[in-house]
Specification:
The chain has 2 domains: 139 residues, no CATH class; 110 residues, Immunoglobulin-like. It starts with a helix and ends in a 6-residue tail after the last helix. The model has no long low-confidence stretch (mean pLDDT 87). 47% of the residues lie in helices and 21% in strands. It is α+β, with helices and mostly antiparallel strands and 262 residues long. The structure holds copper (II) ion.
Length: 262
């Protein structure tokens, strides 16, 4: 069916029905469903496995957003790849020019459906993002009183950590489990970015300006601390490790390093 025929078909509803009777459109939709399923499975099953271990409330939030947004965008990526797969697997052969594709641009019902559906997806994404950010901000203010304070200092090309309340300094990031932590982040030279990967927080380390970021470690284990801002020749090697420990282990570590439990 050509564009011309489609224009002659009386109602928009009938034009939509005729469109979905086309075998090329049906094949494209079938591929759309297959690709959508692939992305949903990726989001639900593989992303949580491939992502860094979830060791804090913020990383949990990141994981939720990553999985949720992958699922929301799956049908859109699915449709684009579905149409592409149909076009690639059913290429026109011979010397004659290919027939016209389906005229969907002027098809009222189809335009209405994709506008409304993609609008709903965008709204979900916006509301979700605002709710997650608010949850993190609220958690940070309610927990500030009991928090461990860590001064994070970036310099070319090492991280160092000061625990002012405990009187300890370290080149490893040691944290007690289930206790809020407040990072006061600063740089001694150029801009760096403090990124304790498994804690799901990342913030710039600037000279002369302290940036503050909070989280609550919720799982015992090792942390990778990286720099996430190109800061010179050895930026790629600007990393250290850390640990989320039990409260007892953390207090022991404090005292063995000459500090006092606080
Ligand atoms: Cu760097």
């Amino acid at each position: 069916m050509s564009n011309h025929d489609e224009e002659l078909t009386p109602t928009p509803g009938q034009r939509a029905i005729n469109l979905f009777r086309r075998t090329d459109v049906q094949r494209a939709l079938l591929f759309t469903i297959l690709w959508t399923a692939v992305f949903v499975i990726l989001g639900l099953y593989f992303y949580p496995k491939w992502m860094p271990e979830v060791m804090s409330v913020d990383m949990k939030s990141m994981e939720r957003i990553m999985i949720g947004f992958t699922i929301i965008s799956a049908p859109i990526a699915g449709l684009v790849l579905g149409i592409a797969t149909q076009a690639i697997t059913n290429r026109h052969k011979g010397d004659t020019p290919p027939p016209d594709g389906p005229a969907v641009r002027t098809n009222g019902p189809i335009v209405a459906v994709w506008t409304v559906v993609s609008g709903i997806f965008c709204l979900i994404a916006i509301v979700w993002g605002i709710v997650e950010v608010n949850t993190m901000a609220n958690a940070a203010t309610t927990e500030a009183g009991t928090a461990v304070h860590v001064q994070v200092i970036g310099s070319q090309w090492v991280w160092s950590f000061k625990y002012p309340d405990q009187g300890v300094e370290s080149d490893k990031l040691m944290l007690p489990i289930n206790r809020p932590v407040v990072f006061d982040v600063i740089s001694e030279d150029v801009n760096h970015s403090f990124w304790p990967v498994q804690l799901g927080v990342k913030v710039d380390a600037n000279r002369l300006q302290t940036t503050v970021i909070h989280t609550v470690p919720t799982k015992l284990g090792n942390i990778d601390v990286k720099c996430a801002e190109l800061c010179g020749l050895y930026h790629a090697y600007m990393e250290t490790s850390g640990k989320v420990m039990t409260t007892d282990d953390f207090n022991n570590w404090i005292t063995t390093n000459g500090g006092h439990v606080a």
